[in-house]
Design a protein that fits this description.
alpha/beta; Rossmann fold; six-stranded mixed sheet; 5 helices; 136 residues; 6 strands
């Protein structure tokens, strides 16, 4: 899978559009299901190249990027996504807390950093950035 759109009954016309970027399809499915329940239209991408292409072709409100993308390097993907106009909010996430230098590099221009070990953090951060009520 390069990218796919995920929607559901809670998604209305004009819903926030969220681009999720992770090589782990299980993580994408988990995030999408939670965000769709909040009323978001999700676009899943399994690599950085298709994420950048999709973001250039589709207007998105929020982008969530896994810090461990392998190709191209996540720092290249983050820089490319930061250059979008209008500029969407950007969350960088990782399985592990990153060392300060790596975290600083990835956060240049990113709105938030969260760890995947606390998936509720990402959903709550996304909801706040999109002006939605966070799940309980």
């Amino acid at each position: 899978m390069k990218h796919r759109y995920v929607s559901g009954p809670a998604v209305q016309p004009g819903a926030p559009r969220v681009l999720l970027v992770d090589e782990d399809e299980e993580s994408l499915e988990r995030w999408s299901s939670k965000l769709v329940r909040l009323g978001c239209l999700c676009i899943e991408a399994t690599d950085g190249e298709s994420a950048v292409k999709t973001a250039l072709e589709s207007l998105v409100d929020l982008i969530v990027v896994d810090a461990n993308l392998s190709s191209p390097a996540v720092s290249e993907v983050v820089r490319a996504l930061q250059g979008l106009k209008p500029s969407p909010s950007l969350i960088v996430c990782s399985d592990d807390p990153l060392d300060e230098a790596r975290r600083a590099e990835l956060l240049l221009g990113a709105t938030r950093f969260v760890t995947k070990t606390h998936p509720g953090q990402m959903i709550a951060a996304a909801a706040r950035l999109l002006g939605l009520k966070p799940p309980n």
